[in-house]
């Protein structure tokens, strides 16, 4: 009988040991509550930032900076600007390239430029600088240079000044011209 008791006690001890081993393994498997970054929250934040940046980046590529002496002509066009280009603005009092003032305009004439010449040398120098910077940036990103320029002209600007601006842009590597207008103009018939 002692032998049976001894076996029962051994069996009981063995079962207790097994139970203790399993509970220790369970304790090892549970992750302690340590303060840290929750990966789900981090993924949510990154997703929100990514969507925000994509929405801002893919916004309208044609941005016309309001200017007190810049009134765009109306048009019935249905075209929409699809890509970001170099912008050349001819306001009533100055000429700007990418919103940077380059020259002053008085009475539809550019200061220090001969009236009978088509080229505007200071504008050409600035456009050449913009072209060189754009080509260098495109070379780094592996893109080709787009020779498109968007011209924004005040509605009351004389044709001769617009002609000089277009000619100057043309000799500064730009071969394609887009003009910005206010969409939704009405066609008026003169009788």
Task: List descriptors.
191 residues; alpha/beta; Nucleotidyltransferase, domain 5; six-stranded mixed β-sheet; two-stranded parallel ribbon; 8 strands; 17% strand; rod-shaped; disordered C terminus
Task: Tell me about this structure.
The chain has 191 residues and is an alpha/beta fold. It has a domain at 74-183: Nucleotidyltransferase, domain 5. It is 42% helix and 17% strand. It contains 4 helices and 8 strands. Strands 5-4-3-2-6-7 form a 6-stranded mixed beta sheet. β2 and β3 (94-97) form a beta hairpin. It is rod-shaped. The termini are far apart. Residues 185-191 have low confidence and may be disordered.
Q: What would you say the CATH architecture of the domain at 74-183 is?
A: 2-Layer Sandwich
Assign an overall shape: rod-shaped
**Main sheet attributes: strand count, strand direction, barrel closure:** 6 strands, mixed
CATH topology value of the domain at 74-183: Nucleotidyltransferase, domain 5
Largest sheet: spatial strand order: 5-4-3-2-6-7
Q: Write the element-wise H/E pattern from the N-terminal end onward.
A: HHEEEEEHEHEE
Tell me the helix content. Answer: 40-55%
Query: Count of DSSP helices?
Result: 4
Tell me the span between the first and last alpha carbons. 130 Å
Query: Regarding CATH, which class of the domain at 74-183?
Result: Alpha Beta
Uncertain segments of ≥5 residues (pLDDT<50)?
185-191
Helix/strand-derived class? alpha/beta
**What Rg is obtained from the alpha carbons, in whole angstroms?**
36 Å
* Number of β-strand runs: 8
Percent strand: 15-25%
């Amino acid at each position: 009988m002692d032998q049976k008791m001894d076996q029962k006690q051994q069996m009981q001890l063995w079962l207790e040991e097994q139970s203790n081993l399993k509970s220790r393994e369970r304790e090892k498997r549970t992750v302690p509550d340590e303060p840290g970054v929750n990966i789900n929250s981090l993924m949510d934040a990154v997703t929100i930032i990514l969507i925000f940046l994509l929405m801002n980046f893919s916004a309208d590529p044609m941005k016309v900076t309001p200017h007190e002496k810049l009134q765009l002509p109306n048009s019935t066009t249905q075209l929409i600007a699809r890509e970001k280009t170099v912008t050349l603005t001819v306001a009533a009092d100055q000429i700007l390239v990418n919103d940077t003032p380059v020259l002053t305009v008085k009475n539809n004439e550019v200061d220090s430029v001969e009236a009978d010449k088509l080229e505007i040398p200071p504008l050409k120098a600035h456009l050449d600088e913009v072209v060189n910077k754009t080509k260098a940036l495109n070379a780094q990103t592996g893109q080709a240079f787009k020779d498109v320029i968007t011209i924004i002209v005040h509605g009351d600007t004389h044709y001769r000044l617009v002609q000089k601006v277009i000619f100057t842009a043309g000799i500064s590597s730009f071969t394609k011209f887009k003009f910005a207008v206010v969409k939704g103009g009405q066609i008026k018939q003169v009788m």
